[in-house]
Amino acid sequence: MLDLGSYLLGVAQILLLAGFAWLGATPVRRRLVPELTGAPAHLATSVLALAVLIWSAELLGSFGALDPLPYLVVVGALGVGCWALLRRVAEDEGFEPPNELPR
After folding, report:
1. What are the domain boundaries of the chain?
2. Which of 6, 17, 75, 86 could form a cystine bridge with 27, CB 3.0-4.6 A?
3. pLDDT of residue 65
């Protein structure tokens, strides 16, 4: 049976994975399709975030290293790396994505 500590650790891992994937997918989506706003923008971001999660799992699974900690590290590195890299590129180019709030 699953105790409370293990359950809460699993919930924290899922939240971290989703957060890191979303963090990396948002600037990629803004760079690829900056004209999207609202629900279509969130759908595109969700698809990219799921791609990050699936590709990371496939990569680790190819080497037999699909365990929770390496998976969290790879997804975290990809998410933060995409966010930092594309943020820097956007600042260097003066790229300003449109406001995503509905008018």
Report:
1. 12-93
2. 86
3. 92
d(C-alpha 23, C-alpha 18), whole Å: 8
Tell me whether residue 92 is exposed, middle or buried, using C-beta atoms within 10 angstroms of its C-beta: 0 to 12, 13 to 18, 19 or more: exposed
pTM of the shown model: 0.80
- Structure confidence at residue 46 (pLDDT): 96
Residues making up the chain, counted from first to last? 103
Give the residue among 48, 73, 46 at the shortest CA–CA distance from 59.
Answer: 73
* Residue in 42, 23, 41 with CA at minimum distance from that of residue 81: 23
Per-residue pLDDT tens over the stretch 73-99: 999 999 999 999 888 887 777 666 555
Q: Is 54 in contact with 74 (CB distance < 8 Å)?
A: no
